[in-house]
Amino acid sequence: MTEPATFSVDGKTGNYPVLAGSVGPEVVDIRKLYAQTGRFTYDPGFTSTAACESKITYIDGDAGILLYRGYPIDQLAEQSSFLEVAHLLLNGNLPNPTEHADFTRNITRHTMIHEQLAQFYRGFRRDAHPMAIMCGIVGAMAAFYHDSTDIHDPQQRIIASHRLIAKMPTLAAMAYKYSIGQPFLYPDNSLSFAGNFLRMTFGVPAEPYIIDPVVEDAMEKLLILQADHEQNASTSTVRLAGSSGANPFACISAGIACLWGPAHGGANEAALNMLREIGRPERIPEFIARAKNKDDPFRLMGFGHRVYKNYDPRAKVMAGVAKTILDKLGIDDPIFDVARELEHIALNDPYFIDKKLYPNVDFYSGVVMSAIGFPTSMFTVLFAISRTVGWIAQWTEMMEDPEQKIGRPRQLYTGPTHRDYVPLNKRA
Ligand code: SDX
Predict the structure, then answer these.
(1) Per-residue CA distances from 320 to 78, 328, 378 (Å)
(2) Considering only CA atoms, which of 276, 356, 263, 345 is closest in space to residue 302?
(3) Which among 2, 7, 140, 383 has the fewest CB atoms less than 10 Å away?
(4) Is the distance from the beta carbon of residue 305 to the nearest atom of ligand 1 less than 6 Å?
(5) What is the pLDDT along the chain (428 residues), one digit of tens a residue?
(6) Whose CA is nearest to atom 31 of ligand 1?
(7) Closest CA to 88 of 281, 224, 284, 265
(8) DSSP state of 71
(9) Whose CA is nearest to atom 48 of ligand 1?
């Protein structure tokens, strides 16, 4: 047990407990700092701040380790299924056969949406970005599922959780169908979670949809790899929204909005657009030079990470999925060659080595989703389908935390001090 930390400023001294987790960095509990010293900590971007205690996901960025409830991500991606991983993240353990059957049935039985929700799509332009639709339609769920918005009722929290996890693929597929002018398909509860989503997205009422097991397996792995990731920006958004007592549908809608950003979940769309812009390996040096140029805002999308200062373990698995699906589907897309060559060049370039910039989960996920047939505008929507499980698990953990209170950070104020109002006719 580490001795308490001592902090002295302007003659005021306080001792602050050092708390240890089961693994990873200890934390200095500074909750009494302001009361004892009259000072705040200052940490824009929260680079050195633990915002909560959690038992769900552990990341060791230096070692490139990612554990869901203690299980390594590569083992889960290779051996588990998305619904089994969802049960693990939500409930803390891998389900036994009865729990697995019950959880699968609960999710499967919530895949349909209220018929009137489908009318919302007709209000959007056909060329609306599907993430814009998802922000709106998921938030609108709060207007339909009133019997699961009481956040203080554990049973309602569970029903809302199952509804969100189950309906995200249906809503996402509808956003895609609407954009291409094809009819919506209802869920088929005889299919797997991934298979059902593929059919609703790529199937048509005019003929049966044959699910390619290679594509279904790649989809499962994609969903598993992106399900949770500790206190990333969108998860922190969901926690902060939930801390005010907002209903789960509003919280997940807020998480979707945050995930959309190109620095976060929107990077998969940006990374694939970047690979297509590079077009061929000979143009890579030009883009590497731009990424190094301080005067150029361009960054290599799909590279770098706030936590991983080693290879993102998800990217390793995703690279394998990309190679498998391209080989098995016989897709000869030069974009994968560009990706591999870019990765090789970047990983041997001192700039990237010094700044510990490795490919992250978004670097190869776009290649996989493009190979399956999704347009780039749907990439972050798929990320949101997967991450809804993590958001729900983290939101539930927060709601069950007896110490939970509304999140309300402070600031370092550098604006004008007191000044009196000057009437318009007296201003210069
Ligand atoms: C996700 O948090 C999570 O867990 C997120 C996520 C999840 O599962 O939830 O893992 C998913 O969001 C993955 C990240 C996807 N984003 C991208 O691929 C976008 C490109 N990456 C960068 O924008 C950046 O790396 C971030 C945003 C991911 C991380 O930025 P940080 O930690 O704030 O680091 P930084 O911006 O301060 O960069 C440190 C240095 C800077 O140079 P200096 O000012 O020190 O000289 O590295 C440089 C940056 O210029 N740098 C890059 C770069 N990323 C950082 N230079 C070129 N290309 C890049 N991609």
Answers:
(1) 11, 12, 21
(2) 263
(3) 2
(4) yes
(5) 899 999 999 999 999 999 999 999 999 999 999 999 999 999 999 999 999 999 999 999 999 999 999 999 999 999 999 999 999 999 999 999 999 999 999 999 999 999 999 999 999 999 999 999 999 999 999 999 988 888 999 999 999 999 999 999 999 999 999 999 999 999 999 999 999 999 999 999 999 999 999 999 999 999 999 999 999 999 999 999 999 999 999 999 999 999 999 999 999 999 999 999 999 999 999 999 999 999 999 999 999 999 999 889 999 999 999 999 999 999 888 888 899 899 999 889 999 999 999 999 999 999 999 999 999 999 999 999 999 999 999 999 999 999 889 999 999 999 999 999 999 999 99
(6) 306
(7) 224
(8) E
(9) 355
Alpha-carbon span 135 to 138, nearest angstrom = 6
Residues with a known catalytic role: 305, 362
Longest dimension (CA), the chain: 78
Of all protein residues, the one whose alpha carbon is nearest to atom 13 of ligand 1 is 264
pTM of the prediction?
Answer: 0.95
Residue to mutate, 43, 264, 345, ligand 1, most ligand atoms under 8 Å from C-beta = 264
Residue nearest to atom 30 of ligand 1 (CA): 306
Q: Is 290 in the pocket of ligand 1 (CB under 6 A)?
A: no
Q: Which residues on neighbouring strands pair with residue 359, listed in sequence order?
A: 303
Task: Please tell me whether residue 248 adopts helix, strand or coil conformation.
Answer: helix
Nearest-atom index, ligand 1, CA of 299: 58
Going 295 to 283 to 356 to 47, the CA torsion angle's sign is positive
Q: Are 215 and 325 in contact (CB under 8 A)?
A: yes
Ligand 1 center to 313 CA (angstroms) = 16
